[in-house]
Design goal:
Helix content is about 40%, strand content about 15%. A hairpin with a 2-residue loop joins β7 and β8. The radius of gyration is 35 Å and the shape is elongated. The strands form 6 sheets. Strands 1, 2, 3, 4, 5, 6, 7, 8 and 9 form a 9-stranded mixed sheet that branches. A 6-stranded parallel sheet has the order 12-11-17-18-10-19, with helices on both faces. With about 800 residues, the chain is an alpha/beta fold. The structure holds adenosine-5'-triphosphate. Adenosine-5'-triphosphate binds next to α6.
Length: about 800
């Protein structure tokens, strides 16, 4: 594009940059270039009309030629084909110059000046291609044009060698700049000479170089707060949660050393050490009572696989080896083959969201208990009716009633079949009755079953069989609860989320699945279950048959359970887990209501600890929430609190260290943001080989687009993490926010923090909060469209003051206690 005509910016001063010669030169060049492009696009608009007209004529002529070919003599064919070929290329060329496809208000975002074989040419990178040979303008599509590779892969001053259009080219990158054009106006230029931005008042300024760079945290030797190790939480390169017994504060220590029995609920904002405390508590208990709290009789449950790996090193570092760490699905699926040998092994991956929500809903927990309560009542009546026919039958009824159904508290005369407040016990009524029938057990006043007349005995045996079958038929109960339209209506009565239409959809899905299961296969569909069926089946098992047993067949009884990120487990899953604990219920729950992640159409509302515990029928000791935000800097913590807005925690978190400001970078297109990110990441990879940055989008599809762009730009060690498969290696993990729950990274870049991705809804605020608080040291927000008002508002608050060091009540004593 060396032939671009010069414009009048030549000797003009750039307001705000009068004293900055380099900045003036760079900005002037870009203003001039934009003016030239806009000129060409403007005149291109009329040229477009003639181009379009030209294309129409070409099309008509091509049709004529095709008809000629059909009737032509063989010797005329080569000439006709040549004409067709020529017209075809002319037509394609006209198409490229059509300015209508390029957004004149934002035609490009990158500018390359190349020198090849002594010749200079300018190439612009944009979202759509546009070539206008008359004015020398070439805009190439960032995703496709081979030349855009040079833009993404090389820096200013680099020599390059590439194969473009099948021919080798080599040259040098004379200039490589990112530009932001908003509404036809140049508003930012990023170049190796600096980043220059134009304010609303038309004045330009040079941006602080520090804020536009990523950097990892390094303790400064001269800074005593850092030299004592408080802020250098990890060894360089170690990306796992560390054991920090010597650094625990007073509130954390108090939680860790609570007596073993009973349920403790740890609350606190993101990064306040909830996971750390739960794990150190396990180590403390194992040290305090090794007999009772054996490693294999404790379990840690986290919401996803990545967190399993992230926390795996803490307990071994504290000298406790062998405590299983699992997720609910992983743990539960190991039990299924033993408990339900006939259950299909396949899981649906296309379950409709409304079905998932219904199966996960707290109402399902109540539905199970109501169902089982009614079943038991019905069986009681059945026993009474059969026994009426036999003179001393009432004695059997009395003896029968003196025992209890599964899960019903022995001491409670109300016979609470919800099984809420007592340990799950094996079913007694059916077992006792069967033992009496077999002559293995006496029932007070019922006599010896073996001496009964054969007819009576036969009737009672049939009854015993029926009781046994019905009372233990977990899969039948599961089917009935989900496939009876009446029961579904009853279960969700009063729930605003499930109207008749939604319940019809749930019903239809469940009935179809039950049919396929019954028939093995139907219309090519294989028998499968939903992931959400697993806790329903396990809960039914507990209520109908007693404690769950492991793959070896022995009942599972946990001496201690630590359930992390409680807000992400369904009440059903929690209920199943809580009933794995032994009678004294030594359980630690940790969670944060602000980190509950719901889909946009999920109206379950805010997570509420009290409501949850009431739903589970549990009493818990809830201590003061942890208040110190250890993970993140004051800048990130304040921003994250702002993001929550009306959902922020009551107490403002206390922060312990400062860091770079949270930054928002806005771009006019995704391609432009990718170019900016690629530069920043390449620089970081060069400066800090240990850096591990998470690039976190709200939705997986957004992560895909950015990942592909960064790959094309040859950013080293860039990975797409879609299934929690973090490698914990230095590099750049492009992912979505759900994958990152509970994890931490030195730097986080929140992708597409636009108004569309993060509207002012509670769901979006919580998701943004989770993403932002994954960052320990530096946080950037990137938006390729209008930024989210949640982000811009949160950026307005100045970071909170740091806590005075001693004020945290840091306790060195914990290191002794935790062994
Ligand atoms: N007393 C402490 N002193 C220094 N660092 C601490 C302290 N307690 C926790 N940390 C560090 O703070 C970070 C966050 O801890 P942790 O992951 O346990 O928090 P969390 O509350 O579970 O976070 P989230 O809610 O995001 O899951 C970790 O790096 C941990 O090592």
């Amino acid at each position: 594009m060396s032939s671009i005509p010069a414009r009048s910016f030549e000797n003009e001063a750039i307001p705000g940059l009068e004293e900055d010669e380099v900045a003036t030169r760079v900005v002037r060049e870009e203003l001039k270039l934009l003016a030239t492009v806009q000129d060409a696009l403007g005149s291109g608009a009329s040229a477009n009309m003639s181009a379009l007209r030209g294309r129409e004529l070409d099309d008509a002529r091509l049709l004529e030629l095709r008809e000629d070919v059909a009737v032509a003599k063989p010797e005329d064919l080569p000439a006709l084909f040549e004409q067709m070929h020529h017209l075809g290329s002319l037509r394609a060329q006209r198409g490229k110059g059509v300015a209508g496809s390029v957004d004149a208000k934002n035609p490009y975002f990158g500018h390359l000046r190349l020198e090849e074989g002594g010749k200079r040419r300018d190439i612009l990178i944009g979202a759509k291609s546009y070539v206008d040979s008359s004015s020398g303008i070439k805009i190439v599509d960032w995703r496709q044009a081979p030349v855009s590779r040079i833009y993404y892969r090389y820096r200013e001053g680099d020599d390059y060698e590439e194969t473009l259009g099948g021919r080798p080219v080599e040259g040098m990158v004379l200039a490589r700049r990112g530009v932001a054009i908003s509404d036809g106006k140049l508003v930012r230029v990023s170049s190796p000479q600096g980043t220059f931005v134009c304010g609303d008042d038309g004045r330009w300024k040079r941006l602080d170089a520090f804020s536009a760079r990523l950097r990892t945290e390094r303790p400064a030797k001269s800074d005593p707060a850092q030299a004592d190790g408080k802020s250098q939480r990890h060894a360089p390169g170690d990306k796992h949660l560390p054991a920090i017994a010597s650094m625990l504060d007073a509130a954390q220590f108090e939680l860790i050393t609570r007596p073993g029995a009973g349920l403790i609920a740890i609350q606190g904002s993101a990064g306040s050490g909830k996971t750390t405390v739960g794990l150190h508590r396990i180590a403390y208990l194992a040290f305090a009572d090794p007999q009772r709290f054996r490693a294999d009789r404790m379990m840690v449950v986290v919401p996803h696989e990545a967190l399993m790996h992230f926390v795996a090193r803490v307990l071994p570092s504290l000298g406790v080896e062998g405590v299983p760490i699992s997720t609910f699905p992983r743990f539960a699926r190991r039990l299924l083959p033993e408990l339900f040998p006939k259950l299909p092994h396949h899981y649906h991956d296309d379950t409709p969201p409304v079905v998932l929500r219904a199966k996960n809903h707290p109402a399902m927990l109540r539905a199970i208990h109501t169902y089982v309560e009614r079943l038991h009542e019905e069986l009681d009546q059945r026993v009474e009716r059969t026994m009426e026919k036999w003179p001393s039958g009432h004695n059997v009824v009395t003896a029968w009633k003196a025992t209890r159904w599964t899960g019903a508290p022995a001491s409670s005369s109300s016979g609470d079949a919800r099984g809420g407040r007592d340990e799950v016990v094996p079913d007694q009524r059916v077992t006792t009755f069967a033992q009496w029938l077999a002559g293995k057990r006496a029932l007070d006043g019922a006599g010896n079953a073996s001496t009964l007349p054969a007819v009576t005995r036969g009737a009672i045996e049939r009854l015993g069989q029926e009781l046994r079958t019905r009372a233990r038929a977990v899969m039948a109960a599961w089917d009935e609860i989900l496939t009876s339209r009446e029961l579904l209506t009853e279960t969700f009565r009063g729930s605003k989320d499930f109207g008749s239409a939604q319940l019809d959809r749930v019903h239809e899905w469940c009935v179809r699945q039950a049919r396929v299961r019954a028939e093995g296969e139907r219309d090519g569909e294989t028998a499968s279950i939903d992931h959400e069926d697993v806790p329903i089946l396990l809960r039914l098992w507990q209520v109908m048959r007693g404690p769950l047993s492991g793959p070896d067949g022995s009942p599972i009884r946990m001496a201690h359970l630590f359930i992390d990120e409680v807000q992400d487990h369904s009440p059903l899953e929690l209920r199943v887990l809580l009933d794995l604990a032994t009678k004294d219920r030594s359980i630690t729950l940790a969670g944060d209501s602000a980190q509950r992640m719901l889909d946009d159409d999920d109206t379950r509302g805010e997570f509420d600890w009290k409501g949850l515990l009431a739903e589970l029928g549990m009493a818990a000791t809830t201590l003061e929430p942890l208040k110190v935000s250890y993970r993140s800097t004051a800048e990130i913590t304040t921003f994250a609190r702002g993001v929550l807005g009306p959902y922020a925690h009551e107490a403002e978190p206390i922060t312990t260290r400062r860091g770079p400001p949270v930054e928002l970078f806005t771009f006019a297109s995704v391609g432009e943001s990718v170019a900016f990110l690629a530069d920043a990441l390449k620089q970081l990879a060069q400066d800090e080989p240990y850096a591990n940055v998470a690039l976190v989008a709200r939705f997986p599809q957004q992560a895909d687009v950015i990942y592909e762009g960064l790959e094309r730009a040859e950013v080293p060690r860039v990975r797409r993490v879609a299934k929690q498969d973090f490698s914990w290696e230095p590099g750049f993990d492009v992912t979505d926010v759900r994958q990152t729950k509970g994890l931490e990274f030195d730097e986080v870049i929140l992708l597409e923090t636009t108004a569309t991705s993060y509207p002012e809804t509670s769901q979006a605020r919580h998701a943004l909060y989770v993403g932002a608080t994954r960052a320990a040291h530096q946080l950037w927000c990137i938006a390729s469209d209008k930024p989210s008002p949640v982000v811009t508002a949160a950026l307005e608050t100045a970071p909170a003051e740091l806590a005075v060091d001693g004020g945290l009540g840091n306790s060195g004593a914990a290191s002794n206690g935790a062994g």
